[in-house]
Design brief:
It is built from 9 helices and 5 strands, in the order βαβαααβαβαααβα. The chain is an alpha/beta fold. It has a 5-stranded parallel sheet with strand order 2-3-1-4-5, sandwiched between helices. α1 packs across α9 and α6 packs across α7. The longest helix is centred in the last third of the chain and has 19 residues. The relative contact order is 0.23. It binds BIS(adenosine)-5'-pentaphosphate. The site of BIS(adenosine)-5'-pentaphosphate (AP5) has 32 residues, from α1, α2, α3, α6 and α9.
Length: 216
Amino acid sequence: MRIVLIGPPGVGKGTQGALIAAHFDLPRIVMGDLLRDHVARGTDLGRAVDNHLGRGELVPDEIMLCIVRQALDAARAAGTGYVFDGVPRTLAQARGGYKIAQELGMSANVAVHLRADDTELIRRLLARAGLEHRSDDTEEVIRRRLLLYQQATQPIIAWYSRRGILISVDAMRPVGEVEREILAALELRRPSAGHSPAMVRRPVDLTRLGAQCGQA
Ligand code: AP5
């Protein structure tokens, strides 16, 4: 299975992505975590994206596509699928990522779109802010992230719908209910989307993702 997760900040991409990856035994590429890790380690990439993250702005497409290529290469080398959490977020990322994935024979076969209203999203993120202290979980920055989602990310939903691989799920419900609906929908897609049984699967090396991607 090759899965992309799309949805606004706080909708549960991380929560559901972890459950999906565990259920189907897939590597999970969590773009936000990966970028925050580079910031914490002070790498070239971390220095290039630090300000974007703090302000709730999107990181430039070329940086994200560089990471996408590395992640797809790693998954391909390991003979596995993937769960992408947080990418693509713009039409340029969707189109550019699709081109790269096609070259590698690794294009997504399911896009899971999670939906919730802004009031609930802000409530969840402010609740998380009290526990995790993410620099972008302040009300002002959350509103900026939500606006950017509507402007830059929403258009990719129609793009995936036209490709015929979109599953849209109401994520206003409790975690377990959302999970059951997603897994049931993915199970239905599994036979046609399945991986090649002849392929040998090796551990996926994601440790170097992002290296060289932030260099000017
Ligand atoms: P990222 O880390 O991806 O942030 P985000 O999209 O804003 O998403 P969150 O992690 O805040 O929320 P989530 O949907 O994963 O929800 P979660 O499961 O945590 O990206 C951060 C930044 O990195 C971006 O702003 C940008 O700067 C940059 N970036 C990343 N990718 C990029 C890209 N492709 N292009 C450009 N820039 C990029 O849940 C949230 C909370 O709600 C948790 O506390 C959880 O426990 C709770 N919760 C989850 N589900 C439920 C439920 N069903 N009911 C009640 N509570 C729930």
